């Protein structure tokens, strides 16, 4: 496209974003210090205000004030807000998904899937509202009862990343609200428009069921806004999704004030392919996990560990599959790979490919830029790179569609390669051998928070707790008993006797 055509295309995208926001009930500011660019064309989509420390402090104060009353509302009643939010998301699913595409560059199917994930976690949270179970335990003292109860924690600060601009917020917010917490959300400065849309829908849901809309606050901006949220003592829990570098800065600051952290950080995910694997199944799982979202998922497949006996054949099948991947405008039908988020992501990918060549890696296919829209948009072909060994480069996470292929001889060697990276988010094995599968899932198998058999590394369901170990941060969101992160535990001893015996048989006086 010429620059004039590109500018016109961007203007159309901007007008569409405004129309979508208006349809969702949100009014987009006409100006602000924060420039929002669309990766679809690289042009300016909008400008929104950048909140400073005083704005963040005011939002926290409102959330803290709302918490005083919200924590006393029965959990099933609190769930009414989340139930209504789910209904609004169903009604506006396609509009919100299109906004995700405009702002984050996801293809339509993935954007709709992300909104559906929001709906699913809302349904999970509504059911959870009647299952915030404590425990009753036998006391060693006669006439006593020992139990545990769970109570709302306080203000939850949510810092989200661009690659899942709405789903990760919903994971945290739906459960936090049901648990009796209030939320202050600081979205990525790359994706504030989707945040504005979700904030509007949630406050509308609260108003429609008679709840206080102040239970949710939105602040937009960059690092300054995030730091203000991290450092405020009124924020009981900081749930931060992003890079390992970001988590390494956030964790000690929150710990210094004795707050809590829930960290979802980097993933350098691997899949093992054994000689017994169903290769048709493996190819489908590998291609989506490695190339989906242009390799910009925290669960994207980055390392493929293949038994040497099937490596050559599998690589050729993957090359053929990659040749069929349509790279293009994510708003177009049939496109499977959209743009990288920005030029920095493209530069990081090219630097990694250059390092791979220098370390005797063989680029099987991909890696080149596809000129589609204009100089500010970064479309690339997903790359497959065969590496002679797991070098320092392969141990690092590059947030781009690069799949490194390594070979192995024994299952123990393969598991060792899987584990020999600092990150520990997601992992997978493709095998029809039950012993290999069980070995992979055992205590001395994969050391990741997610370990799959015969599916890829991405596409987690909301029913299971999501998160990872090591440099991934150790946090857990979404399903299972992750709700406990958003609450505080109290141990209660009730004496219904006339005596006052002490524990451990101690006699005093």
From TrEMBL:
<comment type="subunit">
    <text>Homotetramer.</text>
</comment>
<feature type="domain" description="Aldehyde dehydrogenase">
    <location>
        <begin position="33"/>
        <end position="489"/>
    </location>
</feature>
<protein>
    <recommendedName>
        <fullName>aldehyde dehydrogenase (NAD(+))</fullName>
        <ecNumber>1.2.1.3</ecNumber>
    </recommendedName>
</protein>
<dbReference type="InterPro" id="IPR016162">
    <property type="entry name" value="Ald_DH_N"/>
</dbReference>
<comment type="similarity">
    <text>Belongs to the aldehyde dehydrogenase family.</text>
</comment>
<dbReference type="InterPro" id="IPR016161">
    <property type="entry name" value="Ald_DH/histidinol_DH"/>
</dbReference>
<keyword id="KW-0560">Oxidoreductase</keyword>
<dbReference type="InterPro" id="IPR029510">
    <property type="entry name" value="Ald_DH_CS_GLU"/>
</dbReference>
<dbReference type="InterPro" id="IPR044638">
    <property type="entry name" value="ALDH7A1-like"/>
</dbReference>
<dbReference type="InterPro" id="IPR015590">
    <property type="entry name" value="Aldehyde_DH_dom"/>
</dbReference>
<dbReference type="Pfam" id="PF00171">
    <property type="entry name" value="Aldedh"/>
</dbReference>
<dbReference type="InterPro" id="IPR016163">
    <property type="entry name" value="Ald_DH_C"/>
</dbReference>
<feature type="active site">
    <location>
        <position position="264"/>
    </location>
</feature>
<keyword id="KW-0520">NAD</keyword>
